[in-house]
Amino acid sequence: MKKIGLLFILFASVFFTSCLDDRHYYPEALVGSWVSLSNAKDNALSLTFYGDFVEVKNGSWDYRPFVADEYWRYYMTRDSVLHIYRNEYDYSDDECETESYQLDLSFSDSYNTLTLWYDPPFSSVRKYTFIRR
Questions:
Q1: Are 79 and 90 in contact (CB under 8 A)?
Q2: pTM of the model
Q3: Alpha-carbon gap, residue 9 to 3, rounded angstroms
């Protein structure tokens, strides 16, 4: 009976181990402002990460999913996937909708360059490269 109890505790601890730590990972290297290399002029796409928010400036349809100037909540998983999401409340229907995207992420060796890949469902993969500002 002790063996069964011990096995149950072992399996229960594995089963109930939360992935929350992996889900809510905020790498310090990501915090700060990043500017797109594809258009390094005054209206270049800019992302500023702080806390669990990312602020988008100079968003446009060309930078999907960053189509407008807005704030997103974000978190990363340990497998280098950046999850961004935001809630929109529709007062007329009294409903809240969540818009979310997943982007693969990588840093250069010196952490001065950030690359994001977005794979939309009905289009080709989009690659965005940013430099730290």
A1: no
A2: 0.76
A3: 10
Local confidence pLDDT in tens for the 133 residues of the chain: 555 544 445 444 444 444 444 555 778 889 999 999 876 666 899 999 998 999 999 999 888 999 999 999 999 998 899 999 998 877 777 788 889 999 999 999 899 999 999 998 888 999 999 999 8
Q: What whole-number distance in Å separates Cα of residue 47 and Cα of residue 41?
A: 14
Say how many C-beta atoms besides its own lie within 10 A of residue 92's C-beta: 5
